[in-house]
Design goal:
This protein is of the alpha+beta class. It has four helices and nine strands. The protein has a seven-stranded antiparallel β-sheet. A two-stranded antiparallel ribbon has the order 1-5. α2 runs antiparallel to α4. The protein is globular and about 40 Å long.
């Protein structure tokens, strides 16, 4: 399959994530202080490990993020979405643009259901081989969505346009997935 664009719901979701990440935050001007808006997927189940038990910022080191975004990490901020997923935003300064950054969103329950819900928002998602039980991406925004077992994770750049692409998001997802599965 080849990605040709987003559906309206996918574009709306991405726009809300990017606008929440890129502006409107208070504090030191380094980024948002509010949580990412709700992502697709079912509410967390009461069985199994709770997503609240995981710190997504602990799944990847600053050095691993820096290796993929090409600039030093300025800060990392964790939070939760309304659907029960946990996220970490890593912010890096990019002197040639404004900033570079990565978001990792992780759920430790209903992995396949959450993945399928997210995949349904994408227009003609591109299958990504060699990562998890199933993975999809879109070349328009470089969102990488992966599931294996009970885990669903997404890796995406914080800002658009960006030079961060599928190679970088794949590298980060391949590090974060086995660590999330071990939780």
């Amino acid at each position: 399959m080849k990605t040709t664009g987003f559906s309206f719901l996918s574009a709306l979701f991405l726009a809300s994530v990017l606008s929440a990440c890129a502006g409107g935050g208070g504090g030191d001007g380094g980024g948002p202080t509010a949580a990412i808006p709700p992502g697709p997927g079912p509410a967390p189940s009461s069985g199994g490990a709770a997503t609240s038990d995981i710190d997504p910022c602990s799944l990847l080191s600053n050095a691993e993020i820096e290796a993929q975004i090409g600039v030093p990490v300025e800060k990392a901020e964790a939070g939760a979405t309304a659907t029960g997923s946990a996220f970490c935003n890593w912010y890096g300064k990019d002197p040639s643009l404004l900033q570079k950054g990565i978001t990792l969103i992780v759920s430790l329950d209903n992995g396949e259901e959450r993945f399928e819900a997210h995949k349904s928002l994408l227009t003609d998602p591109m299958e990504v081989a060699g990562l998890g039980t199933q993975a999809v991406s879109t070349t328009a925004a470089e969102i990488l969505s992966v599931f294996e077992g009970r885990v669903h994770l997404m890796v995406t750049p914080l800002y658009s346009p960006t030079s961060i692409g599928l190679i970088e998001t794949y590298a980060l997802a391949s590090l974060a997935l086995p660590r999330a599965l071990a939780k």
